[in-house]
């Protein structure tokens, strides 16, 4: 098999890659990027208290996971 034939055969086996949408510089959450420590739905908050209030939780019933930004939800109160 010639090099041209091998390249053509390889091209047929390789699926076409689709172009990325955007350049990757977008921000996927609402709020200030530099202060996004807690997340409720897609809204960022800089403090746990603000995030708990937005989630409708009391400070004691508020839970967050270990992600960064931390996803905040209401636990058993």
Task: Describe the protein.
The longest helix is centred in the N-terminal third of the chain and has 11 residues, at 3-13. This protein has a domain at 29-77. The mean pLDDT is 77. It has a 4-stranded mixed β-sheet with strand order 2-1-4-3, covered by helices on one side. The protein is rod-shaped. By secondary structure, it is α+β, with helices and mostly antiparallel strands. It has helices at 3-13, 48-55, and strands spanning 38-40, 43-45, 62-64, 70-74. Strand 1 and strand 2 form a beta hairpin.
Strand and helix map with partners:
Elements: H1 3-13, E1 38-40, E2 43-45, H2 48-55, E3 62-64, E4 70-74
Parallel strand pairs: 1-4
Antiparallel strand pairs: 1-2, 3-4
> What is the helix fraction of residues, given as a range?
10-25%
Largest sheet: 4 strands, mixed
H/E series: HEEHEE
List segments where confidence is low: pLDDT < 50 over at least 5 consecutive residues. Answer: none
Question: What is the residue-averaged pLDDT?
Answer: 77
End-to-end Cα distance, whole Å, is: 71 Å
- Number of separate helices: 2
- What overall form do the CA principal axes indicate? rod-shaped
Which percent band covers the strand fraction? 15-25%
What is the structure about, briefly put?
The chain is of the alpha+beta class and 77 residues long.
Features:
77 residues; alpha+beta; four-stranded mixed sheet; 2 helices; rod-shaped
């Amino acid at each position: 098999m010639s090099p041209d034939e091998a390249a053509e055969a390889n091209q047929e086996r390789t699926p076409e890659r689709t172009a990325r949408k955007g350049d990757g510089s977008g921000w996927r959450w609402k709020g200030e990027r530099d202060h996004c420590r807690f997340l409720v739905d897609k809204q960022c908050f800089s403090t746990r208290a603000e995030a708990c209030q937005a989630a409708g939780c009391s400070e004691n019933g508020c839970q967050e996971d270990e992600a960064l930004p931390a996803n905040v939800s209401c636990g058993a109160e």
